[in-house]
Amino acid sequence: MPLKTEILPTDAAGLARAADLLRGGGLVAFPTETVYGLGANARNDLAVARIFEAKARPRFNPLIVHVADITVAKRYAIFNDTAERLAQAFWPGPLTLVLPLAPGAGLSPLVTADLPTVAIRIPAHPLAHALLTAFNGPVAAPSANPSGRISPTRVAHVLDGLEGRIDAVLDGGSCDVGVESTILEPLEHTARLLRPGGLPVEALEACLGTFLQEFDISETITAPGQLASHYAPNAGVRLGVTAPNTGELWLGFGPSAHAADLNLSPSGDLIEAAANLFHMLRNLDARAAPGSTIAVSKIPDTGLGRAINDRLRRAAAPRG
Ligand code: TXA
Ligand code: MG
User: Fold this and answer.
1) DSSP character for 30?
2) Residue 263 Rama label (left phi>0; alpha psi -120 to 50; beta)
3) pLDDT for 214-224, tens place per residue?
4) How many CA atoms within 13 Å lie on the side-chain side of 212?
5) Measured from the CA of 94, which atom of ligand 1 is nearest?
6) Which residues contact ligand 1 via a Cβ below 6 A?
7) Angle in degrees, 0-180, between the axes of helices 270-287 and 305-316, rounded to the nearest 10
8) Residues 99, 45: contact at Cβ < 8 Å?
9) Can you state the percent helix, strand and coil of the chain, rounding each to 5?
10) Residues 34-41: what's their mean pLDDT?
11) To 5 degrees, how large is the angle CA 309–CA 254–CA 163?
12) Helix (H) / strand (E) containing 36
């Protein structure tokens, strides 16, 4: 059933409504200085799963976590000296830093695609800042467009792609920068450019007094499951089962899997299944005997099922 997408004014009432919707697990598009983001509470698995559903993303690409200030950022990420320097120089602004995830950060593993790092950004747009302050928590936000379409810089673009699929959009006019943030991974004395964007490389190099490391296209994070550092279960993974073999743990889906060790969604709801996926894989992996296998029920390859199956195929792929 399509949602009624509210177009919220940028006064105190509109901001309060947007923050309430986020608190309730809703999806709220909001302006940043780069492009409109599609925001959800980054600690709420179901809310984050709904981002992927609304965008029809075929993969669980990691998302950028937006926060109001650097004190909040440090709850979720570990800053080395380079990160500290870049943050002081360019935040708030169109710069995203990929940093080690802080212990106990409490973010949904869907936000990081279960990577040991988190992408974090403090947007400069006053409305983004006001929303993050009113919500008082971390907001996961990819660009507010259906997967594969160009990023939106006006409310009309957001509605064009996502009306009826999201709860609300904060009407903040047009975005100044118009391209997404520059994504950097700070290293010891330099940084690696992961995505060129709204903050020019020259400004970053001038700040660090050194050249940025080359962007290696083979390492792009469009497929986080291919990263060596990416979590894969220790147990083997067998897909598309209707029942487990003896000694296997069973990760079920739907009502027919009532005897499963864990069930991604007993009712067969793909949004719930996506929200549970990484938690349940880790849980079963911790319980699996050495050399044993996790058997996974067949998941429909529609909607979020495509992203779930993409991730499961990576987990089941032969280990390198
Ligand atoms: O300007 C922007 O950055 C906009 C506004 C809304 O903030 N957001 C945006 O998000 O462009 P999105 O989802 O379209 O791009 C996020 C990209 C991912 O595709 C991935 O390449 C990278 O950020 N990313 C996120 N987490 C990462 C991680 N842990 N390691 C490496 N790259 C990561
Ligand atoms: Mg995008």
Assistant:
1) E
2) beta
3) 766 555 554 44
4) 23
5) 1
6) 32, 34-35, 37, 61-64, 96, 98, 112, 115, 117-119, 121, 141-143, 180-181, 183, 194-195, 221
7) 20
8) no
9) 35, 20, 50
10) 97
11) 65
12) strand 36-41
This prediction has a pTM of: 0.90
What local confidence, expressed as pLDDT, does residue 225 receive?
42
Structure token pair of residue 309: 């199956």
Rounded to the nearest 10 degrees, what angle do helices 270-287 and 45-55 cross at? 130
Residue with tokens 């995505």: 195
Burial letters for 137-164: b for 16+ Cβ neighbours within 10 Å, e otherwise?
Answer: bbbbbbbbbebeeebbbbbebbbebbee
Model confidence pLDDT, tens digit, residues 171-202: 999 998 988 999 999 999 999 999 888 998 99
Amino acid at 234: N
Alpha carbon distance 198, 249 (integer Å)? 47
Q: Tell me the C-alpha distance between 287 and 188, whole Å.
A: 37
Which of 67, 68, 98 minimizes the C-alpha distance to 82? 98
Q: Which residue has the tokens 């695609």?
A: 113
- What's the rounded Cα separation, in Å, for the pair 306 and 314? 12
The dihedral built from the CA positions of residue 180, 181, 182 and 183, taken in this order, carries a sign that is negative
